[in-house]
Write a structure and sequence with these properties.
The protein has 76 residues and is α+β, with helices and mostly antiparallel strands. It contains 2 helices and 5 strands. The radius of gyration is 16 Å and the shape is elongated.
Length: 76
């Protein structure tokens, strides 16, 4: 994705089932499945060329929890 750009990300309950449904409706995968901190993700393009992503939140708010942890040498 060229910078600067943005992409809508939709949360889904089941990434594989949602991907199958989107493919059935004619959406084209834009690359394969990949991982982000919150869980597995896939990019798609619709018939008009609009880009979207779907995300299954298997590790919700992982980064936020990590940033809230006290660092070594800091008080809790």
């Amino acid at each position: 994705m060229p910078a600067p750009s943005k992409r809508l990300i939709y949360q889904v309950e089941d990434l594989d089932a949602a991907a199958r449904e989107l493919k059935h409706r004619g959406w084209k995968p834009d690359g394969g499945r990949f991982e982000v901190p919150d869980g597995p993700c896939m990019n798609f393009k619709d018939s008009s060329g609009n880009e979207y992503a779907i995300l299954q939140m298997t590790r919700p708010h992982l980064l936020e929890r990590e940033f809230l942890k006290p660092r070594r040498g800091e008080e809790a």
